[in-house]
Predict the structure.
Amino acid sequence: MIKVVFTFLLLLSAQSVMAQIIVSPDGGIRSIKEAVELAEPGAHIQVQPGTYVEHNIGIDKPLTLEGIDYPVIDGNNEGYILVINSDSVTVKGFEIKRTGRSYVRDYAAIMIEGAKDFIIEDNRLEDVFFGIYLAQTERGVVRNNRVEAFDTREASSGNGIHLWDVKNPQIIENEVLGMRDGIYLEFVDNAEIYGNISNDNNRYGLHYMFSDGGRYYDNIFRRNGAGVAVMYSDNVDMMNNLFEHNWGTAAYGLLLKDINYSKIEGNRFYRNTVAIYSEGTNEVHIHANDIELNGWAVNIKSNSARNRFTENNFIENSFDVRTDSPRNNNEFVGNYWSQYEGYDLDRDGIGDVPYRPVSLFSMVITKQPESLILLRSMFIKLLDTAERIAPVLTPKTLYDEQPKMDRIRR
Amino acid sequence: MSLLMHIIKNEWKSLLRGKWVIGYGLIFLILTDTLLRFGGGGAETLLSLSNVMLLFVPLVGMIYGILYIYQSREFVELLLTQPINRRVLYWGLFLGISTPLMAAFIVGSMLPLGWHGILMIDGMASAMVLGLGGVLTLIFAALGFVFGLMFYEDKIKGFGFTIVVWLFLAILYDGLVLMLVFLFGNYPLENFVIAVSMLNPIDLARIMVMLEFDVSALMGYTGAVFNRFFGTTLGITTASVMLLVWLAVPTWIGLNVFRKKDF
Amino acid sequence: MIEIEDVKKSFGDLNVLKGMSLTVPKGQATGIVGPNGAGKTTLIKTILGLVKSDSGLIKVNGEPLDNDGRYRKDIGYMPQVARYPENMKVYELFEFIKGLRDQEPVYEQELIDQFTLRPELEKSLRNLSGGNRQKVGATLAMMFNPDLLFFDEPTAGLDPRSSHKFKKRVEMEKENRKTVIITSHIMSELEQLVDHVVFILDGRIRYYGSMENLLQESNETRLEAAIASMMDDDPQEVAA
């Protein structure tokens, strides 16, 4: 019996030794495509340092493709580079560059289609059209990759990490720079996205479309053309992210469109043109965020209702809240507003008079945008203070009845 | 040159003795420290400080300039009978009294910013607010000088004029701009409002504060002229140059009035 | 020596100096008298450079007035009202003016002793009595030993003892051939101090000559009476 087991183990290890395939520029196997064709399912292909000019490398069996010291796969601007159609594939440790570009096909450096349980990690993608493309996959992990391409034209750049019709993906600690959308999700269920950095993308750092039940946290979205957009999705949790320096006439720290039952908590919004823009958004709880030095902290359209803003710090935003509604369908309670001028006679830390975050001046500039140049002038301050004391033009029911006297420490 | 320094140093000495320049610095020290203790972070403090600065530094500067002329009439006349050039005397007196006031503001505000660590975190913004306060001090002290020399015999008129000019520049001017914007709302106004704001040194300083703290809002504006002005270095460059012009013009007018004046 | 040729000055519509010509030779002590508003102060201020004349020529020691004010190195001026920066100390004021003139004082210590200012040197000017401030002014005027001395109502704030000392000092300056010009309302004082009189009325010089001549011509024994009789001769002018 012991002998049988021993023989079995020996066989097993022999098989795994056999399954190890080495690719090197000056070895027996010189191309990755060849190695993949030779490999048995479950094989471990090690690729030695060097440059491999190959594209459309199809992977149709479970295997591990590992680069040693970042070998370069150069697609020579033609087609896809790696195309994965099989479950349980791992791709790790490559530098991949120069995919094809097309207006018709989404050429990606790593394309995973109809596969489950894959791991894409530690790769560096440069000068690619799309970076990592997940289509109809389940339970894949995309971790610690870096995708970078600097093509300033939105139309000719693809997305860094693109997910379409995907279930339970994990997008962890990747860095995406200079793509169209950093991370793009469409019809994705229960995505888990954390620790990523998505900067300097032409459009959105993160773009959610029709993707319910996911969450993203501890990410950084910086200097993206239009910030972050979460659209047509329910039950999305957005926590502890940093949204900063998203500037422009159509740039938002976070754009919400048709979002329901979601949570925005513990994020920091810093120096965005609009920190949170909300359209058709309902029952979203915006809680404990730091919203500092933005142009507009919140721009909430009249078709948004029953959203709650609680315990946020609104610090020196040029304008706190903007709305096109004369009524207030949302709730603002217990936030700290640095522009609050009230008093606290009973010393309970809560101001005794309500704070009205919609200033008269914010309505003035809607009508006459050039007057923006008068921002922070004493005359405007006097106007705003007068309007706050006796509101005539600003929404009468939009106020925070329990404004905090001091910044909420976290 | 040494004569100029001799006059400046003498003014410094007697101002330091007068202690109220030190008091002025202390007010800003206490104000900034309090803002930092109870108001929260750097940007908040710097903005509150710049609000106070934009409102009161011009007033204090002007009052200070005109008060000096009124209080020192006989002394200035005595100095004018000494064998020195009026030009040198003017610069000596002006720099002698305006620089300590400027230093009082800058040092008074800077110390708390330093010990609360804001200078390290928000260095550029701090430098901007302190620098603007300094330049405004000089501009308005010069204006005070000019008004003092213009209304040499009539102190009530001089002070009245000063207060009116301050009210106008600090508050009413922007009201007029707003009114014009609404009156001519159908025309492209971006160049106009930029130009008009450049004509008021307080607005000019305010725009520079805006460029530091509100760029994100300014970038939300759709007009191309604003975007070019505020989004590039064009805005900060133009505003700085204009501020220097504003510094040069009142001091130059003051110099000429002083040189030609019959005492 | 001071030479003034047809100097005119008006402030707005008000013609204060209506063409004045005057030569004061070196070593002469001259009193300038006239009613209030006659132009005495303006005349002195014009010579000192405080007021710029509209036309005419002024020469001091042969040199026309210049913008640099170098000619004022030869001038000492004691103003009527002496006010100084309040928290400045007396000795600091002396040091400051010394630096300003870039001249070494000749009589500084002598004058300080003469006017008993030594105990005041460490005091702030704010704490000085009016009389002591006048004495500081007199010291400043004379300490550099200038050729020309201007005193504007010099003894107005002085006690009799100081006044006496001041007059003795002026006597001495006269003996040293200094050109001395004094304006004063106190005619008896002028009688003591000056030998020539300039009488100004309504922007013009009515009389310029020696004191003796004036007394002789007007048949009076006192300057005050002589001046008064001159003003009586010209009633319209005074009224105007």
Q: What stands out?
A: Residues 92 and 352 of chain A are 59 Å apart (CA to CA). Helices of chain A lie at 2-19, 32-38, 360-367, 378-389.
